[in-house]
């Protein structure tokens, strides 16, 4: 059975924990081992400074701020290693989501990326095969504003030239989804439990998978 006529002109995807997997425990363990400080202190500092990193400060400044928070005196080689491990930890993709991206590409659906991401991860994603089919890539580090601030969504709508009610947005963080909905965007809270495909099928963007049975 075919899909209905789409009521969405473009689908905008978050990257972290939607297209990518959450950094796996083994990657986190490597970072903790290299850092050599209590894990609780490390991750508290990591997340406290992350918004500034996502807004565009450099990796040396970011990891330097973390070092000061945890009282570490990391060598340049250690700082480089922490940076490399961290960037790599965010680049493991979800096969189920990438399969859906392929389906959308086959249907000629316009897609874009909207990610709170630092310059280093944004640079990798601009060259990644998984983003090759996207019409546009929007990163907080370039715009100086992060989700869930309204300005970042307004920028995306303006750049794509789409009306909010004809733009779908997929994100795993509830606050980002709610902010998009307040602007009239058709936002979907991604849970990773097979909910993305029915959402897209319900808007006529892909065919619904037959029920098991």
Question: Can I get a quick summary?
Answer:
About 50% of the residues lie in helices and about 10% in strands. With about 210 residues, the chain is of the alpha/beta class.
What do you see in this structure?
By secondary structure, the chain is of the alpha/beta class. It is built from eleven helices and five strands, in the order βααααααβαβααβαβα. Strand 4, helix 10 (174-182) and strand 5 form a beta-alpha-beta unit. The protein starts with 9 loop residues before the first strand and ends in an 11-residue tail after the last helix.
Overall pLDDT level: 95
CATH class of the largest domain: Alpha Beta
Given as residue ranges, the uncertain stretches (5+ residues, pLDDT < 50) are none
Q: Strand pairing plus helix content: what structural class? A: alpha/beta
CATH architecture of the largest domain: 3-Layer(aba) Sandwich
Total strand count, please? 5
CATH superfamily of the largest domain: HAD superfamily/HAD-like
Which terms would index this structure?
alpha/beta; five-stranded parallel beta sheet; Rossmann fold; 5 strands; 213 residues
Helix/strand layout:
Blueprint: E1 10-13, H1 25-35, H2 39-48, H3 50-55, H4 59-70, H5 76-89, H6 95-106, E2 110-115, H7 119-126, E3 136-139, H8 140-143, H9 150-160, E4 167-171, H10 174-182, E5 186-189, H11 196-202
Parallel strand pairs: 1-2, 1-4, 2-3, 4-5
């Amino acid at each position: 059975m075919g899909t209905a006529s789409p009521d969405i002109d473009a689908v905008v995807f978050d990257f972290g924990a939607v297209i990518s997997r959450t950094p796996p425990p083994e990657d986190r363990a490597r970072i903790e081992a290299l850092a050599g400080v209590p894990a609780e202190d490390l991750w508290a500092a990591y997340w406290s400074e992350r918004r500034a990193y996502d807004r565009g400060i450099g990796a040396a400044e970011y990891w330097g701020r973390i070092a000061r928070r945890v009282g570490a005196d990391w060598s340049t080689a250690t700082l480089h290693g922490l940076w490399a491990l961290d960037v790599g930890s965010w680049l493991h993709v979800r096969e189920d989501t990438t399969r859906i991206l392929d389906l959308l590409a086959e249907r000629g659906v316009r897609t874009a990326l909207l990610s709170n991401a630092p310059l280093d991860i944004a640079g990798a994603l601009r060259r990644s095969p998984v983003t090759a089919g996207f019409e546009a890539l929007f990163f907080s580090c370039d715009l100086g504003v992060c989700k869930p601030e309204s300005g970042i969504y307004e920028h995306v709508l303006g750049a794509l030239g789409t009306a909010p009610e004809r733009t779908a947005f997929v994100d795993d963080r509830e606050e980002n989804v709610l902010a998009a909905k307040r602007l009239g965007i058709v936002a979907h809270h991604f849970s990773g439990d097979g909910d993305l495909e029915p959402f897209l099928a319900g808007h006529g963007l892909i065919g619904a998978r037959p029920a098991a049975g």
